[in-house]
TrEMBL record, chains A, B:
Belongs to the 4-hydroxy-2-oxovalerate aldolase family. It comes from Acididesulfobacillus acetoxydans. Its EC number is 4.1.3.39. This is 4-hydroxy-2-oxovalerate aldolase. It comes from the Bacteria. Mn(2+) binds at D16, H196, H198.
Amino acid sequence: MNKEKMIHLVDTTLRDGSHAVSHEYTVEQISAIAGGLDAAGVEYIEVSHGDGLAGSSFNYGWSLTREEDMLIAAAKAIKKGKLTVLLLPGIGTVENLEHAARCGAKAVRVATHVTEADIAEQHIGIAKKLGLKTFGFLMMSHMAPPEKVLEQAKLFESYGADIIYVADSAGAMLPEDVKVRVGAVVDAVKVPVGFHAHNNLSLATANSLAALEAGASFLDGTCRGLGAGAGNTQIEVLTGVLDKAGYQTGVDFYKIMDVAEEVVEPIMHRPQVVRNAPLMLGYAGVYSSFLLHTYRAAEKFRLDPRDILVELGRRRMVGGQEDMIVDVAYQLAQKKGGSHEGR
Amino acid sequence: MNKEKMIHLVDTTLRDGSHAVSHEYTVEQISAIAGGLDAAGVEYIEVSHGDGLAGSSFNYGWSLTREEDMLIAAAKAIKKGKLTVLLLPGIGTVENLEHAARCGAKAVRVATHVTEADIAEQHIGIAKKLGLKTFGFLMMSHMAPPEKVLEQAKLFESYGADIIYVADSAGAMLPEDVKVRVGAVVDAVKVPVGFHAHNNLSLATANSLAALEAGASFLDGTCRGLGAGAGNTQIEVLTGVLDKAGYQTGVDFYKIMDVAEEVVEPIMHRPQVVRNAPLMLGYAGVYSSFLLHTYRAAEKFRLDPRDILVELGRRRMVGGQEDMIVDVAYQLAQKKGGSHEGR
């Protein structure tokens, strides 16, 4: 752990945080938040629909503000930092990325499931040609063992990514899980490594510290921890903790606290606490998109939905396999000899 | 770290959590919460005014329910666990403790400032004579170096305490701070060691894990993290995290989640989040009783109250020294050459 080195902070209040306000940021709110973060010294300010460029849709939820207006407002408000966008190949396209660059984006995070880095090769290549700082972002990293995570990280590096992120998208990792995965990637690639945490197990801040101990130098967060479910790492708290632990971030602790309390808190739809549903997602290590299907299956087979979630996590089921939840519930019910429905 | 050993959980929703509901628990709520925790398998269930036995007063806030009614209701609801009370020598007396034992208390935590264990000798002696499981509880442990904490722990042990607690009352510790203090006490005493966390830096859960790694075997928490300011360790999350990390607690994860969401959450006055004021208390490592005096002094000398808090923490000022806050503010203002008031 080298505390002399600079820790780079990425604020994703206006991207991942957007899930928690139903993607309803106004242009004025985007300006105020992006401008406040920039004045506080945040280096990367991520602005996109919660599911990335072109995420605004029937499937993922419509944004209140058009993507172009969002990016232009943020670009105007940011003087020193880098306007950053997220791209999920399959949702966003190369055209969306080129458009974002024209609107002022200086960095992009190309995100894939932890085992699917190969679908990002073209997007990373184009991002580099556009002159963008390019991050490869491995989602749901808890689902793969360290050797798989590092293999995928090396793929990203071979495509030209400038920074590789390990993301604990379900907030399912313990500090030790973070250390082994981040440490494996740090040892395997030459580029800097980052970590993106979620707070489902109340460990987002501690896991961020664990990532630094394992050699990471980029960390994510959101004001007040804004984000789906239990939310993300609370960036103003993280800033204070890093300062207290002796790390340098270049972010003004008081200023970012003020952005959180005066600008972001008043527009939140609900407090960012760990209720039982996100706690169970983190405990089981499963996608939030499984919840609704799980509740339905639990009712049908008279099961505790928590038992289904734990079983889905045990089987390492991934997004897109939602239709199999009923099968899993049926098998659980059979095993318990409880329900006769569904036979 | 020996994961085979049993971790003992102490729930303090009905004591430390009481601060966050202005000590307004009703008899029905006390029965429901104590009964729920007991059914979930929690071993120690702490019930007292937030400031301990006899805390109900003009100075510390009146309890809605009389102490006797509180204890009798809890004792009736608890079948397997131990009804536990807190005693702060100077607020509660030996008579209060004897009364609590008659009402059904089976355990007592005798709490002092981290440097004042010697004021607890008589109380610990009487507690042992009453047949109570007796904890020595060192508050604000971040203010003393490990060698001082272990010296005070040994005093408690010499008086007969069955368990020694290191308490991070201001939520000011980083995991490393916890490890060195808890580790020092574990090495110095023969009795089991516990850790009480606060969440001002979003590290309560992680610090609890760090305490176990350093050899502790008792941990505190409250449902939904209920407590003053940023609150305590969220006990249902802690239960899940300990389970996931391979520790045994004897607590049913689903049942304690249900108590938190169905019984405790509906009676909370506000969500338990990390707003700026508790964040600053944890960052600076100072008492919450300093806040009001600090805001007044900041206004008088046109200072940022946060600068005053940081200075108070740097000087390791303790409770009772509130009148010196104006002096500290005056000196800060002089140094900044800002204000001419107060001369």
